[in-house]
Design a protein that fits this description.
Elements: H1 14-24, H2 29-37, H3 48-72, H4 79-93
Helix pairs in contact: 3-4
Length: 98
């Protein structure tokens, strides 16, 4: 594909910009416009509820990873902390209803 050294400016109305932003979701404008112009498949928009769930799971997974790392280094974490993180992780997996 080569280096992307050239910039193309396009002027749009406020309505057009709103439509573009709604369609592109969280993707950068330039990447979305390039994909449309080159007729490349654009990834589907991830619903906000899924993004929030992913963020919650990522935080819990990172905390569990830190506990596991501490354990493997000989620093045994408190059982209460492990239980709390496992409960949070389970609740996140079950959508907060667990």
């Amino acid at each position: 594909m080569g280096n992307r050294n050239h910039c193309i400016s396009v002027r749009v109305s406020a309505d057009e910009l709103g439509r573009l932003d709604a369609e592109r979701g969280h993707r950068p404008r330039g990447a979305y416009l390039r994909a449309c112009w080159l007729r490349l498949p654009t990834p589907p928009m991830v619903p906000e509820v899924n993004r929030r769930a992913w963020q919650a799971l990522a935080r819990s997974a990172a905390n569990l990873n830190q506990l596991a790392t501490a354990y493997h280094m000989g620093d045994v974490p408190e059982l209460a902390a492990v239980r709390q993180e496992l409960a949070a992780f389970r609740a996140a997996l079950l959508g907060g209803n667990g």
